[in-house]
Design a protein that fits this description.
The complex is a heterodimer. Chain A has a single domain, classed as Beta Barrel (Sortase, Chain: A). In chain A, a hairpin with a 6-residue loop joins strand 7 and strand 8 (190-203). By secondary structure, chain A is an alpha+beta fold. Chain A has helices at 2-29, 31-50, 87-92, 204-207, and strands at residues 64-69, 79-83, 95-96, 107-112, 133-137, 141-153, 175-183, 190-203. Chain A starts with a helix and ends with a helix. Classes of the chains: A alpha+beta, B mainly alpha. Chains A and B meet through helix 1, helix 3 and strand 7 of A and helix 2 and helix 3 of B.
Chain lengths: 211, 65
């Protein structure tokens, strides 16, 4: 009997340690996958940018469409935005909502990303202040958006992704950017939404520090 | 359970401790590189996709975190 109880206790302690290890893995171990994917996506993106533009260029789910940089998060902060917001897409990096505007277009360029786990691209999103720049690099242009406001909404608030946020159906006139991520940190109870608006566009060749 | 395993490890003293350490590291490596990557996408406690998928229209993409 004593042997059984002791064995059960040992199993419980082992299970606890395994769960702790799993938490460590989800928070930090998952970033390894994202970093590898980002490296690959970045190479692919640079390669397509170097090639002459094809007019029939199609955007496939899971492929890189642009690069996002946020100076507030440091010089090294750089992610390839992938097309799609499925689980598999967001594991690779921030994802663009298919169907929403592309960078620089009139409407709402909506990007979602992890706040924790998988490299946590938007981990520090709450630090963004009005006027902070969000740089979106595409093949020819660098679009400079500035943060305009911030909201915490319910996970079902799809209206933030509308071409005119909170007014689905209204015809857009401005060029907006919306970032959605989890809120609060380590939870998925709500969503933190960062709104931005295009302030200027530059030719990319001179705007980025890499070719 | 662990006492039972310990008694069956080869070697003596520090040597036996090294073998035990090796076994522990092997177990951690299997968990970290094989089992957790398989298990993690199935749990999704960080993303909140499910609740959204249920409430949002099917055409709308979910808002993961």
């Amino acid at each position: 009997m004593r042997v059984l109880i002791r064995g059960f206790g040992e199993l419980c302690i082992t299970a606890g340690l395994v769960v702790l290890l799993f938490v460590t893995y989800t928070l930090w171990g998952t970033g390894r996958y994202t970093r590898a994917q980002q490296e690959q996506l970045s190479d692919q993106l640079q390669r397509t940018w170097r090639q002459p533009q094809v007019t029939t260029e199609k955007i496939t789910l899971g492929s890189g469409i642009a690069q996002i940089r946020i100076p507030r998060f440091g010089k090294k902060y750089r992610y390839v935005v992938v097309e799609g917001v499925d689980l598999s897409d967001l594991r690779k990096g921030p994802g663009h909502y298919p169907g929403t505007a592309l960078p620089g277009q009139v409407g709402n360029f909506v990007v979602s990303g992890h706040r924790t786990t998988y490299s946590a691209p938007f981990n520090r999103a709450a630090e963004l202040r009005s006027g902070d720049e969000i740089l979106i690099d595409t093949r020819d242009k660098q679009y400079v958006y500035e943060v305009t406001s911030r909201r915490v909404v319910q996970p079902t608030a799809m209206e933030v992704t509308a071409p005119v946020p909170f007014h689905p159906g209204r015809k857009p006139e401005r060029r907006l950017l919306t970032i959605t991520t989890c809120h609060p940190k380590y939870s998925a109870a709500q969503r933190l939404i960062i709104f931005g608006e295009l302030v200027r566009e530059l030719p990319r060749a001179t705007a980025t520090d890499q070719g | 359970m662990y006492a039972w395993i310990w008694r069956r490890l080869p070697g003596h003293g520090p040597q036996r401790a090294l073998v035990a350490l090796g076994l522990i590291l092997a177990a951690v490596a299997i968990l970290w590189y094989v089992i957790f990557p398989w298990l993690e996408p199935k749990l999704q406690f960080d993303r909140g996709v499910v609740e959204n998928g249920v409430t949002a229209p099917p055409s709308s993409p979910s808002v993961p975190g």
